[in-house]
Amino acid sequence: xxxxxxxxxxxxxxxxxxxxxxxxxxxxxxxxxxxxxxxxxxxxxxxxxxxxxxxxxxxxxxxxxxxxxxxxxxxxxxxxxxxxxxxxxxxxxxxxxxxxxxxxxxxxxxxxxxxxxxxxxxxxxxxxxxxxxxxxxxxxxxxxxxxxxxxxxxxxxxxxxxxxxxxxxxxxxxxxxxxxxxxxxxxxxxxxxxxxxxxxxxxxxxxxxxxxxxxxxxxxxxxxxxxxxxxxxxxxxxxxxxxxxxxxxxxxxxxxxxxxxxxxxxxxxxxxxxxxxxxxxxxxxxxxxxxxxxxxxxxxxxxxxxxxxxxxxxxxxxxxxxxxxxxxxxxxxxxxxxxxxx
Length: 342
Ligand SMILES: NC(=O)c1ccc[n+]([C@@H]2O[C@H](COP(=O)([O-])OP(=O)(O)OC[C@H]3O[C@@H](n4cnc5c(N)ncnc54)[C@H](O)[C@@H]3O)[C@@H](O)[C@H]2O)c1
Prior knowledge:
Layout: E1 12-16, H1 21-32, E2 36-41, H2 49-52, E3 60-63, H3 69-78, E4 83-86, H4 93-98, H5 100-120, E5 127-133, H6 158-173, E6 182-187, E7 189-191, H7 201-209, E8 224-225, E9 227-229, H8 230-246, H9 248-251, E10 255-258, E11 264-265, H10 266-276, H11 280-290, H12 307-313, H13 321-341
Parallel strand pairs: 1-2, 1-4, 2-3, 4-5, 5-6, 6-10, 7-9
Antiparallel strand pairs: 8-11
Nicotinamide-adenine-dinucleotide is lined by residues 17, 19-23, 40, 42-43, 65-67, 87-91, 106, 110, 131, 133, 163, 187, 189-190, 197.
């Protein structure tokens, strides 16, 4: 049921990356709130949350590439876009390592093409949220955790560098030169329903635990991470979008970190997944496999707090880690059954 009494009702919202993990979840909530969602979609991939949950029938999908500025200009002007969530991105770290060109094109060029399209037709725009990531900071020693918004960006690997570039480009549009209502989000790792990139730890391990494949750990599992549940992230995106539209002068140009401030090792994550799927007896084999492995091309330790978003928007995560994992497992149980058994 659409909620009429809220800021998003009838807003024209552009979501790039709508056929991806976070884009699909965001579109779902925007549709529930009655927004008119316009989603940029690059390929005809159907094995996504957008199609599995039939959200494609409830939004306007527009096929094209975010590195095509004229294509984006047409959407912004013709659809009278009011709010933009820029989520389209080449996110796979592995692809970033073997194909940095593709990663730089989508992540950097895609971002300035979108911002230039908005600069050409700014008349209806109320808020622009550009998704950066904790990876933009690069590696800091453990004693410097949690990251703070004023830490300099020192990325090293291609994906991380591409995100930091896009992050700085977005900030430049919020300066007095252009006065755009732009903010940049740097969230920690996100997990939840709809994450169908099976090189990521949750989908990969849950699929194996539910009996649809095998799981091979990539490294020794000692890296420290912070994982936030996707419904909390969507809730925060909506708070930021609405807040920015209502107070553009005060909020434009801000950077927002968000995490749960609860560091967790990759080993502990896997232990939780194996336990909550009833596969704890297999976890000792995984632990054995991890011992002696080296982790290459990944940051050692990252986590974040939510102090600033709490101050500005009163936001804090609603889900416990285990609560999020339970919801995620239940979603994958239904999805994998549908995919492999019907
Ligand atoms: N998933 C996480 O843990 C996480 C954490 C922090 C930040 N982020 C950021 O959130 C955003 C969304 O991440 P996600 O996990 O949903 O990724 P995803 O890979 O699931 O979705 C990204 C979407 O962008 C599309 N895309 C890529 N290049 C494109 C192009 N040139 N033109 C049009 N579409 C293109 C892809 O087809 C895909 O559908 C990214 O900017 C990412 O850096 C993600």
